[in-house]
Backbone:
């Protein structure tokens, strides 16, 4: 993409609650990105109308000059787009609640992107995303897809191997991890270099260097206080982190301490999905009767409540954080990672950004066509994936097992194979037991068979 080009960006899944955040981020795009049109489409047109009001208010406040267009026809929304940003949840928040509660009923972690719930989410979303990929190839063949749809790793694995579109998987977890580490060190995150590797929601920081090339990870590992400051909740015991000699992202909590996560959720009495559903209901009730000047205030209060409760159910059985957290970080966040990627693709100077991309032998433990989450050099010349060697021995078995689960899940979706679906759940380290895998799969197919493209036995 050449600099200063006039662009159209299409958002598929525009009725999501984070759409106004994206509008806020795009307002800071700068001179190298002349965004002419931001096109919105969602299967839920009634909800899109509500979110659209907030997005328009955010555009006015943030100074976004691009035209906001709302479409009922997806072909027209995507046609001629330079970028297509995808952020969908097939079945909406109600499907997420079912994903999590079915898992919890079988004594499993109830979470949207990992474990049994992550499998069900992936099966629904990948089937839809492959259809959107084919449509994009047809009406906007030169577009780059920037994908937020969860689980990002499985969606990327499927699209990279079963479509011809260009796709970059994005997630705010790595940058938020980097920012938390920088705050613990009382350093500017922009002045540090983080060596990071893994899969989406399965990543580890193995090195932190400053501008003088000094290694800072040993300083953190030797200090219990600094280790605690790296995480919003006390997810990992100090000795566990010191023995691991790496800083895992917070989603590793579900893999390392699944029993604790399950028990905390049970003690709280509701899953994260149920909590978010209640917050969303309250948000849309308020927005429906809000005047124009009230929209952003209502929306930002919702963001504060949602951010404060993030990971609280699984980590503390519902205790919310007391500290104030800035709504719009200059380094991390949903809207920030999207903007960083777009800005980098329009700059001759490369930026190092963690993305989910095709491996191409960068991570030597995995296949070339596997989707991996690694720091990439992003510029107007394209996306380069620097080699990272082998994963540390302490994390390699888990990395390999989860990747095999992801491959099987993609196969189950593409081939519409119940056999592959069962194999995927049995390979998933948060399910594993054959009898539980069979019961969970049967319940998910009963609830979502048509959306998952799987038939009951």
Residues:
């Amino acid at each position: 993409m050449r600099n200063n080009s006039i662009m159209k960006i299409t958002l598929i899944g525009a009725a999501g609650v984070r759409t106004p955040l994206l509008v806020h981020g795009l307002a800071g795009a700068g001179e190298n990105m002349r965004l002419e049109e931001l096109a919105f489409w969602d299967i839920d047109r009634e909800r899109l109308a509500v979110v659209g009001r907030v997005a328009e208010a955010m555009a006015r406040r943030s100074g976004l000059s691009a035209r906001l267009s709302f479409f009922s026809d997806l072909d027209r929304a995507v046609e001629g787009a330079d970028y297509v940003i995808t952020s969908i949840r097939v079945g909406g928040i109600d499907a997420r609640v079912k994903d999590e509660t079915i898992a919890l009923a079988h004594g499993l972690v109830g979470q949207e992107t990992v474990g049994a719930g992550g499998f069900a989410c992936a099966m629904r979303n990948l089937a839809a995303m492959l259809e959107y990929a084919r449509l994009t190839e047809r009406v906007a063949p030169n577009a780059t897809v920037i994908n937020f749809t969860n689980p990002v790793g499985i969606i990327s694995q499927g699209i990279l191997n079963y479509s011809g579109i260009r796709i970059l998987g994005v997630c705010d977890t790595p940058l938020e991890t980097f920012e938390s580490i920088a705050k613990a060190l009382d350093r500017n995150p922009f002045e540090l270099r983080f060596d990071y590797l893994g899969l989406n929601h399965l990543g580890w920081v193995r090195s932190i260097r400053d501008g003088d090339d000094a290694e800072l990870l040993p300083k953190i590992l030797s200090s219990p206080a600094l280790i605690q400051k790296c995480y919003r909740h006390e997810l990992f015991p100090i000795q566990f982190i010191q023995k691991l000699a790496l800083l895992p992202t917070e989603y590793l909590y579900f893999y390392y301490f699944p029993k604790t996560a399950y028990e905390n959720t049970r003690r709280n009495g509701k899953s994260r999905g149920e909590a978010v559903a209640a917050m969303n209901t309250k948000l849309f009730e308020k927005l429906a009767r809000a005047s124009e000047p009230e929209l952003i205030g209502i929306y930002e209060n919702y963001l504060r409540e949602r951010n404060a409760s993030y990971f609280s159910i699984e980590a503390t059985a519902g205790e919310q954080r007391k500290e104030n957290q800035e709504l719009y970080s200059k380094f991390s966040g949903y809207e920030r990672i999207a903007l960083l990627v777009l800005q980098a693709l329009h700059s001759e100077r490369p930026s190092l950004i963690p993305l989910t991309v095709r491996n191409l032998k960068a991570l030597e433990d995995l296949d070339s066509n596997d989707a991996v989450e690694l720091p990439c050099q992003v510029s107007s010349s394209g996306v380069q994936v620097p080699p990272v060697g082998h994963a540390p021995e302490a994390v390699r078995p888990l990395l390999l097992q989860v990747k095999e689960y992801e491959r099987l899940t993609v196969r189950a979706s593409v081939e519409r194979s119940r056999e592959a679906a069962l194999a995927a759940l049995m390979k998933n380290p948060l399910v594993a037991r054959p009898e539980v895998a069979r019961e969970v799969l049967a319940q998910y197919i009963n609830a979502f068979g048509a959306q998952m493209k799987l038939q009951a036995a």
